[in-house]
Specification:
The structure is a single chain. The protein has 2 domains: about 5-160 and about 305-355, Rossmann fold (3-Layer(aba) Sandwich), CATH 3.40.50.450; about 160-300 and about 370-405, Phosphofructokinase domain (Rossmann fold), CATH 3.40.50. It is about 40% helix and about 15% strand. The protein contains 13 helices and 10 strands. Strand 9 and strand 10 form a beta hairpin. The longest helix is centred in the middle third of the chain and has 22 residues, at about 160-180. The radius of gyration is 24 Å and the shape is elongated. Bound molecules: 6-O-phosphono-beta-D-fructofuranose.
Amino acid sequence: MSRQKRIGILTSGGDCPGLNAIIRSVVKYASLKGWEVYGIPRSIDGFVDIAKGKLQPEDIKLKENGYDIPGVLQGLDVLHFLSGSVLGSSSKENATLPEVTHEIMEGYHRLQLDALIAIGGDDSTEKMYNLSKQGNWNLVIIPKTINNDVAFTERSVGFDTACNTATQALYDLTFTAASHERIMIVQTMGRDAGHLALHSGIAGGADAILVPELTPKLNEKLVDELCRYIAHMRQYRRKFALIVIGEGVRNLEGQKDHYIAETLAKLINEHSRKLCLAGDEMFAGMDEIDTRATILGHLQRCGVPTSFDRILATVFGIKAVNLIEQERFNRIVIWENGDVQSKSLDKIIPLIKWCHKNDACTSPLDPDGFMVRTALSLGIFLGDWEHHHLVFSNEGENVYYPTNNYLQPTTNQEIQESGIVNS
Ligand code: F6P
């Protein structure tokens, strides 16, 4: 048995399914080693409460069996199945004010922690990294987010469950869409990444999928092409269709729109009416396109974690404890080629900082990646007709999609600054 350690664990940023499964895995494995685990409530805000004496270390010590349920369920590991975070989470923690930082540091040292496991997305990773440098903390990060946009990990905890939720919603909407011969537009979360929209769109049988990497903003040409695509479907295939739009797609003015699905529904409706009135030949004998929008919202952050998310949560938790035991601190646990690995935060933080500074996504969809190609191979409308044409025509080396103003480091200087070369 290794020397007894005291470790802390916290959840930071937006919640997602699988957070409790990570906590459960860490507590179980660390307890077997005889270590003590302290659950910091409400992310780093909990350190402030400890510094102020509102909480005592004993109040937040986590027990191996989690929570005592009486009766026949006594001892059940409920944490494995529950979504949300039993520790509470926060994305608004203000760690930049000097007095707050001072209290966070005091709380951390009062607990006499050997190491801290912080579960978070890329914003939290940067925040925790900065604090750990200031306070000399022994930090390990576990990536979670339904957006799947944490750099250098192929999967983050929560993404798979969110995909399933959105896929199920598409299945459910299919039958009401069919009954009324309507176009259903479904808005997924995902922030500035299209992973959730594209994965659930393909799994849910969507006819069109708009993601920020390929469609940074709506434009009139796109609305026209989408209307014609739907008209073509109506003439030759079926009368209803499902469109998925990622929340990161901006409106006609290039602005963030919390109701982008509603905005698109209105644009399609108005434009198709114009085409009907103008006697456009594709719309001959047709009515304007009847559209309805559904915003899936926070339901995507709920639900019982899928088996994949529970497994990912469990192996990530165990890997984090192993890293602490080996005193390999300042690392992020990642999923790569079907295996759990870790990477130095010093190597990946420059990219995260570069992306945050330039308002870019740290891990966008690859516009030429296999998921995009899969969608195109199925004839799914992805927003840019030229892109379809280029990919389908497969013009050798020159197959290239101009991603408009979608931001990624491109010049040598930017690539150096972002740290990609060192990763
Ligand atoms: O980052 C996770 C996420 O769920 C995004 O997909 C979404 O844009 C955002 O958080 C919503 O945040 P809030 O819960 O603060 O509205």
